[in-house]
Amino acid sequence: MDCEDMQMIISEEPNLSERKEGGKRGRKPGRKASNEKVDIKAKLERSRQSARECRARKKLRYQYLEELVADREKAVLALRAELERYKQWSHKLGEGRIPNGFQQLLEESGILKQEIS
Q1: Which one of 28, 29, 82, 106 is least enclosed by Cβ atoms within 10 Å?
Q2: Are the C-beta atoms of residues 99 and 88 closer than 8 Å to each other?
Q3: Three-state SS across 71-113?
Q4: Please, are residues 112 and 103 in contact by the beta-carbon 8 Å criterion?
């Protein structure tokens, strides 16, 4: 390419400083329409509704977790009672006595076969 070709290419490119003002992107300052006020009110109402729904979901989540904790606490108490019973049985077996309910436990677990009468 020679110098004349380069000048022709440069002269054919559009001048960026001659850009139209309407071609700019984004929000135009000072152009607030009356429908924007309606949009803002609708947006605020949607936001309020969303907040109400969020609080309701949060309340349900906490209720679910409280029920879950209560169920687990009941299970823990039942297991502690069972553990205490086994401790007492162990103590009685150590003394050579058979505790109440111990034979039934052995039969249920299949260690001791039930007698058929």
Answers
A1: 29
A2: yes
A3: HHHHHHHHHHHHHHHHHHHHHHHHCCCCCCCHHHHHHHHCCCC
A4: yes
97 Rama class: left (phi>0) / alpha (psi -120 to 50) / beta: beta
CA pair distance 20, 96, nearest whole angstrom: 104
- The predicted-structure confidence for 78-92, as pLDDT tens digits, reads as follows 999 999 998 998 888
Cβ count near 85 (within 10 Å)? 15
Collect all residues with Cβ–Cβ distance below 8 Å to 101 and sequence separation of at least 6. Answer: 85, 89
Residues whose CB is less than 8 angstroms from the CB of residue 89 and which lie 6 or more positions away in sequence, other chains included = 99, 101, 102
